[in-house]
Amino acid sequence: MPASTPPPPAASASPSGTPAGTPVPSASAPGRGTPPRGPQAARRETPPARPSAAAPQAASSGAPARKGPPAHAPREEAETTPAASRASASAPPPSAGARERRGRPAAAARADLEVRSHPGGPQRAAAPGPDGVYDYRITAVNHGPSQAVGVTVQDRLPASLVFVSSADGCTASGRTVTCGPLPQLAVGASHTWIVTVRLADDYEGDGRDIVNLASVSSQTRDPDASNNTTSVTGLPVPPDWGRADLSLTKTAVLPGGRDWVRPGETFTYRITVHNNGPGTARGLRVTDPLPKGLHFVGSPDGCAPDDGGRLIVCPGPDRLASGTSVSYALTVRVATAQTRHFGRIENVATVTSTTKDPDPSDNQNPPYTVYVKTGDHGELPDTGGDVPAWLGWAAGAAVTCGGLLMAAVRRREAGRGPRR
């Protein structure tokens, strides 16, 4: 009898009804019975998982078999470990504030900023001081919904105002004052800068025409730009602002109490400027052009020749309040080449101001009131214009009496006749 061939072992069925060991096509594989097309389709096919030692036991017990990772997984999936995937999934995305702090504001961040401005500060009332100085309080407010980054405020001053300083670090370039940038401004928060200004020296108005503009901006998108600018109109300018009547007087302080000096001697001119009001005089300047008969020696009050010439200029002050005065002393020397024995040396000084002067007629010392007499004969008495009036009458009377006496003598001799 021929040897009987043992029957093939019975294949265990999988839960899906597919005999064990039969390859299961992947989702991307061609349909059953359709051969894969091309090398790309062959690579996309997933080979069947090799059954582990526990696979028969799982199959016999009716539990589904676990499938291991594909032997030929894509490179991207192979490089991503389960731990890295879990860490990436658990890490929260960076917040809008974090992106803004790195200098990359979130596209969705929005901050509605508002700017407010009004005169007066915590240490200064709205009314100006005697020098016409004011404080502007400029405030930036964030209405949200996001915090604002890089908040900057600009104050555009009119021609009637001049920037003085800022306790909060604002700086000026031309007529534009810049405050900030402020790194962050939270939702609902506000920040205030104080800008100190003064009236311009040539301003003559009453303050109602002064308009000051302020604006706010930031790196965060602002959904409503209608409140990013504001303007303040009017300032309480005193009624006497812009008018100051200045007057100048000048005297010569001569050596030894004399009213004349010799060539080569020095003496001092004293110039006094008084403000008769009603307002403060600003930008004062005193000039004194020396004549050829005088040479400038020095001044303890800062007066000096302008560019080395003969025009002497005395500084400031920048402000001279109503009812106050300022004095300057100039030391000069009489030229030795002065040949006129008793000639006048006229010297006229002038005061000017950037404030309007309602009466400029007294801004110079009057002519022929400041002079010195010079002579090269020592301390001889003056026999010129200082001769007393009675001496002329006495001389005339003496001459008249002499003439009458001579006439009487001649008549007497004529009456005697010739002698025999």
| Name given to the CATH homologous superfamily of the domain at 244-374 | ntegrin, alpha v. Chain A, domain 4
Mean pLDDT: 74
Architecture of the domain at 244-374, CATH level 2?
A: Sandwich
Report Rg. Answer: 54 Å
Q: What's the CATH topology name of the domain at 244-374?
A: Immunoglobulin-like
Backbone structural class: alpha+beta
Strand order of the largest sheet: 5-6-3-8-9
The general outline is: rod-shaped
Helical content band: 10-25%
Terminal Cα span: 238 Å
What percent strand?
Answer: 25-35%
Largest sheet: 5 strands, antiparallel
- As residue ranges, the low-confidence spans are 1-91, 121-128, 375-386
Q: What's a quick, concise take on this entry?
A:
With 420 residues, the chain is of the alpha+beta class. Helix content is 15%, strand content 31%. Residues 1-91, 121-128 and 375-386 have low confidence and may be disordered.
Structure report:
By secondary structure, the chain is an alpha+beta fold. Among the domains are: 111-233, Immunoglobulin-like; 244-374, ntegrin, alpha v. Chain A, domain 4 (Immunoglobulin-like, Sandwich). It contains six helices and 21 strands. The protein has helices at 38-44, 55-61, 75-79, 82-90, 96-101, 389-416; strands spanning 111-119, 133-145, 148-156, 161-165, 171-173, 176-185, 190-199, 211-217, 229-233, 244-253, 260-261, 266-278, 281-282, 285-289, 294-298, 304-305, 311-314, 319-320, 325-334, 350-352, 373-374. The strands form six sheets. The chain has a five-stranded antiparallel β-sheet with strand order 5-6-3-8-9, with no helix packed on it. A four-stranded antiparallel β-sheet has the order 1-2-7-4, with no helix packed on it. Strands 10-12-19-15 form a four-stranded antiparallel β-sheet, with no helix packed on it. β5 and β6 (176-185) form a beta hairpin. The chain is rod-shaped, with a radius of gyration of 54 Å. The model is unreliable at 1-91, 121-128 and 375-386 (pLDDT under 50).
